[in-house]
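Subject: Sanity check before I submit

Could someone independently write out the structure tokens for this chain? I want to compare against mine line by line before I put it in a report. The sequence has 460 residues.
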Amino acid sequence: MSTTTSIAAMQVAAPVSQLERITILDSLRGIAILGILLMNIPGFALPDPAMLDPSVLNEWGTINFKTWYFIEWFMEGSQRALFSMLFGAGIILFINRQEKRTAGLWPSDYFFRRQLWLLVFGLVNAFILLWFWDILFAYACCGLLMFAFRRLSSKKLLIAAGICVLLMTIRENADFYKNKVVIYKGELVAKLDTIKTKLTDEQRDELNEMAAMKEKASPENKKKEMESNLKKVRGDYAEFYKYQSERSFMIETAFFYKFIWDLLLFMFLGMAFYKNGLLTGNASFKMYWLMFIVGLGAGLILSWVRLQPSIHYRFNEFDYVKNVRFEFYEISRTLRSLGIFAFIMLLYKSGWFKWLFALMRPVGQMAFTNYLMQSLLCGLFFYGIGFGMYGQLQRYEIYYVVLAVWIIQIVWSHVWLRYYQFGPLEWLWRSLTYWKKQPFKRKISSNVFSDKQEHHVYHS
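---
Independent answer below. Compare away.
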């Protein structure tokens, strides 16, 4: 490709303009990015393992337990699923738009550059802002894989999503049964009469592995682990950095490897739903009602069934693994997420909640900035290197912090976009993607939507 051609292509390529945006997608991003904090806040505010295990702080029968139960039963994973769907749709939107403006390899070049910069931002979130549950790194990697599937029909993309549900369910049960085998072998050895039978090295290892698993699941050990984690997060910067960066490393490597099908599943769904109109509000009321009733109904039932053994065995992982036969988290989460998505779309199509989607739209336009801003705000509030509120609030109280962050992000998103075309990090990401400083300040005319566009926003 000649230098002249390269310069011409770079001049034509540019970020999406305000008038080209699909506003329902921005609103959905806003809902998802705020909703994600509902699930992330225990990771910011509460020590491991108490953040996911209400038995550690003896929260039985309290408002804290009810709070945990509602989030885990109803909301858990649904907003991340919605955001993943929007990310999948965004891949198609980005590439299609570039292909209309530039020729040759330029659309692919911009896309891969965009993903690699996203990966860098994910590393910043994980190892500088020290948010160990960062999702940007995983999105960047999965986006590179999803590039190969962008031209598939919606039907084939749905089939791919179904395969991912199957593979993820196999993955979670493979790990589950691996632990079952440890318990089974250890208990067989424990039954042997060691007076008559000398244990082999292998048998001793099996017994020790089971004993370690049992010890780790004990209430006493979980409290010790919690106290250790409290000390590390509340400690000096060096100790905190070592602890938090190790957690980030595990999430970006082993966790990502195990849960990649979970991420790809909803990106496939997002691509499919964009192509068949479900994501842009173009499907029928009947279809959304069907998804809502079947998805949320079946999903909540399965989530209830899934949570009962944990509660029955008082969150003892050893007893849970020993007695439960099958894991179906991914199935229940998928159904719930689809039901919640359909409910949001029913609100949108009803026309009664224009105010809600208008409120969420700027938050979604600045979703990237707002996601990293959550890491910054919550880190400053909870970590020991900030205000040190880590472990100081009860579980239900941490959601007051969520509400405060929501208000801040809604207000500042609306104010910021009155004067600027993009959020600050959106602008930086786009400038890096195109190797060109992008226009930043908003033109007055870009604030004005035509009647036709407003009709599309709410009635398409």
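---
OP: Matches mine. For the report I'm noting this point. Residues 3-169+236-459 form one domain.
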